[in-house]
């Protein structure tokens, strides 16, 4: 049973862009907390229900609340031709908007074992992983190493360069989306290595979290994105 959220959606239109300001129309779009396609406890024992509930309802919800607030302030500042405030708001938009973008992908990257979580990728993505990394095991080892070594908070990504049709592994600090590492990069799989994603269950042992999360990775979703971008 999917979990429903109660965040109100209003009509507004401004997207996240971390490198430049976009022209702003008279209407903006605020963002709402996406539903999870599974219950909070469905990923246990890899990820506890308590962590999932806090992560979704508290952390992701807070990013959305602050993102919407910053967008409204930006809208007002542009209407007033207040360039100083527009510039000041960019960091809040990047951080909170990135938090919303990244977490929205993260929930789709996970699936209960009974629904295919952890099943290896097949078809085109499976072949691409073998070609670029030698094997799925090598890919997992490299992503775990990169994720464990990331200082502070951030994300480790498996992405595809849609221009070169090449798989890449990247890390981003804080809530920076993968696109900040290159305009042609599309995220297939992102693993949150902020402490709020694992500390209640794994304490300060991030490598244990990274080892176990692969048991509930939704490779079907990653494969669908890969097929769409590389067809």
TrEMBL record:
Q: Which residues form the Manganese/iron superoxide dismutase N-terminal domain?
A: 30-111
Q: Which GO terms describe its cellular component?
A: mitochondrial matrix; mitochondrion
Q: Where in the cell is it found?
A: Mitochondrion matrix
The superkingdom listed in its UniProt entry is: Eukaryota
The entry's keywords: Manganese, Metal-binding, Mitochondrion, Oxidoreductase
**Could you say which residues bind Mn(2+) here?**
55, 103, 192, 196
Q: Annotated Gene Ontology MF terms?
A: manganese ion binding; superoxide dismutase activity
EC number of the protein: 1.15.1.1
Q: Which residues form the Manganese/iron superoxide dismutase C-terminal domain?
A: 122-224
Cofactor(s), names only, from the UniProt record: Mn(2+)
Q: Which Gene3D superfamilies match?
A: Fe,Mn superoxide dismutase (SOD) domain, Iron/manganese superoxide dismutase, C-terminal domain
Q: What does this protein do?
A: Destroys radicals which are normally produced within the cells and which are toxic to biological systems. Destroys superoxide anion radicals which are normally produced within the cells and which are toxic to biological systems.
Put simply, this protein is called: Superoxide dismutase
From what organism does this protein derive? Gossypium hirsutum
The organism's taxonomic lineage, starting at the top: Eukaryota, Viridiplantae, Streptophyta, Embryophyta, Tracheophyta
- Per the record, the gene is LOC107916272
């Amino acid at each position: 049973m999917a979990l429903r959220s109660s965040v109100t959606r209003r009509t507004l239109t401004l997207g996240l862009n971390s490198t430049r300001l976009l022209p702003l129309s008279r209407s903006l779009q605020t963002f709402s907390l996406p539903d999870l396609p599974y219950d909070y406890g469905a990923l246990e024992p890899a990820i506890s229900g308590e962590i999932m509930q806090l992560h979704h309802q508290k952390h992701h919800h807070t990013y959305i609340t602050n993102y919407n607030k910053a967008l409204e302030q930006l809208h007002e500042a542009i209407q007033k031709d207040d360039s100083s405030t527009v510039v000041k708001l960019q960091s809040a938009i990047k951080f909170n908007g990135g938090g919303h973008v990244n977490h929205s992908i993260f929930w789709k990257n996970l699936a209960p074992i009974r629904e295919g979580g952890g099943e290896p990728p097949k078809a085109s993505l499976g072949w691409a992983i073998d070609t670029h990394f030698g094997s799925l095991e090598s890919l997992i080892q490299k992503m775990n190493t990169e994720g464990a070594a990331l200082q502070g908070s951030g994300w480790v990504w498996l992405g595809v360069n849609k221009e070169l049709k090449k798989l890449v592994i990247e890390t981003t600090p804080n809530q920076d989306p993968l696109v900040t590492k290159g305009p042609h990069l599309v995220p297939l799989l992102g693993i949150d290595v902020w402490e709020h994603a694992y500390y209640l269950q794994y304490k300060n042992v991030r490598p244990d979290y990274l080892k176990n999360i692969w048991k509930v990775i939704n490779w079907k979703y990653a494969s669908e994105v890969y097929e769409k971008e590389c067809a």
